[in-house]
UniProtKB/TrEMBL annotation:
This is Amidohydrolase family protein. The lineage of its organism: Bacteria, Pseudomonadati, Myxococcota, Polyangia, Polyangiales. Residues 84-417 form the Amidohydrolase-related domain. One of its GO terms (molecular function) is hydrolase activity, acting on carbon-nitrogen (but not peptide) bonds.
Length: 420
């Protein structure tokens, strides 16, 4: 697979002059124009026979006026499809990989590769990035991984060397392997500052630890500690995401006011009200428990965990429904690991089950993910000044969310068309 940049030179329908040019009819341009059957943005605006003009990696025009196509621009014909903004997966783990060595399990193989074969781990992460891009995800927020894999992968994708979604990375993340209250304020601040120095785009905190054998979770930080981590992250200019499965831990995390909260079930109306007041975005990651349930043997999980995963999914779905009903902003996060890449958008089906319309689910998969890390003025819409991240789907995404999940036919990221 490679990115293809169309470079065919032609003149527009009326042979428009380039800015400052002549009327000779012979002109060239590095700009591109995408023609779409229609364009749907997350605010619900629909443009029939839409035209999107792209200069370098940004959008310079959105509308239906053919005269806006620069003379000599390359024209990409996606008129058979409906255009949407590139999707945002607000929670992935590209470095959680296994080479499926016989006799090994994923959670033990990943750290072995990290310490013994990092080049192999990087290559596996490249494959995960490609599989993610295929789903229409053009932006991925990695919430916990090794800097020596994530930083070069992010750079390769930005340069166009490696196909994949635009990456925003938390590096390693912050966790506590002692007990709540074990660290001083200065130590906690230092942990955040270390993330800055390691090149993180955001801070990730694990506020509880959960057993793979029982699925039980215990808090690892006090409220005061979480507040220091949140405040320090914001002082350093970084958004912060807090992982909190259990409702008691989630309550502490929500009160601390992070930019996003990952996974929790058991949320009530008070929790939702606080999230709205503080602007915290909820990333439920419902489908990742379906993924674990469907792959018990692959992970070496006991068969009786299937019922526990089902119970957690029900509680997680109920929390998402409650949050949506109250008006909490929800973002799509797959929590993709190992063989889960390529299933990144399955979460959208759960959102519709939780009461969202297809348009609301699209909003969760675009602008809300962007808002969770403060980049909503660059990604999440097809609009002037935004990155040229556009996907083409077959069917009507406003009528059926499966069109977004299974109907992606073309992908553009930063003005580059991916050829699969």
């Amino acid at each position: 697979m490679a990115f293809v940049i169309l470079t065919t030179v032609h003149c527009g329908p009326e042979k428009q002059n380039p800015p400052g040019g002549t009327s000779s009819g012979e002109c060239t341009s590095d700009d591109k124009a995408v023609r779409l059957g229609k364009l749907v943005n997350p605010d619900g605006a629909v443009i029939d026979k839409a035209i999107v003009v792209i200069h370098e990696d940004r959008i310079s025009y959105v509308g239906a006026d053919e005269k806006q196509i620069p003379c000599g621009a390359s024209v990409i014909d996606w008129t058979a499809y409906t255009g949407l903004p590139g999707l945002v997966d607000a929670h992935v783990h590209f470095t959680y990989q296994t080479d499926k060595e016989p006799g090994t399990l994923p959670w033990t193989r990943a750290p072995w590769l990290m310490n013994n074969d990092p080049y192999k781990l990087l290559d596996l992460a490249r494959g995960a990035a490609l599989a993610t891009l295929r789903t229409g995800v053009t932006t991925a927020i990695d919430k916990g991984g090794s800097d020596f894999i994530l930083n070069p992968l992010r750079a390769e994708i930005r340069s166009g060397k490696t196909p994949g979604p635009r990456m925003y990375n938390s590096i390693g993340g912050i966790s506590n392997h002692k007990h709540p209250g074990a660290f001083t304020r200065e130590q906690l601040k230092g942990w955040v500052q270390l993330q800055v120095l390691r090149g993180a785009d955001l801070v990730k905190v694990w506020a509880d630890g959960c057993s793979d054998k029982t699925l039980d979770c215990l808090p690892t930080f006090t409220f005061d500690e979480l507040q220091v981590l949140v405040d320090t992250s914001h002082q350093e200019g970084l958004p912060i995401a807090i992982h909190a499965y259990h409702e008691d831990t989630a309550r502490l995390a929500i009160m601390a006011g992070p930019d996003s909260i990952e996974h929790p079930e058991g949320l009530d109306a008070v929790d939702c009200g606080i999230m709205i007041d503080k602007g915290t975005i909820y990333v439920p990651t419902i489908d990742h428990n379906r993924y674990y349930k469907d792959n018990l043997a692959f992970f070496g999980y006991a068969p009786d965990l299937e019922a526990k995963f089902d119970a957690y999914i029900r509680d997680n779905l109920a929390s998402a429904a409650q949050a949506h009903l109250m008006g909490v902003k929800i973002a799509m996060g797959s929590d993709a690991v190992f063989t889960g890449f390529g299933q990144n958008t399955q979460e959208l089906a759960w959102f519709v089950q939780a009461g969202m319309t297809p348009l609301e689910a699209i909003r969760a998969a675009t602008i809300h993910g962007a808002e969770s890390i403060g980049v909503q003025n660059e990604i999440g819409k097809v609009a002037v000044g935004y990155y040229a991240d556009i996907i083409a789907v077959e069917g009507d995404p406003l009528a059926d969310i499966n069109v977004v999940i299974n109907g992606v036919r073309k992908v553009m990221m930063g003005g580059r068309v991916a050829e699969f």
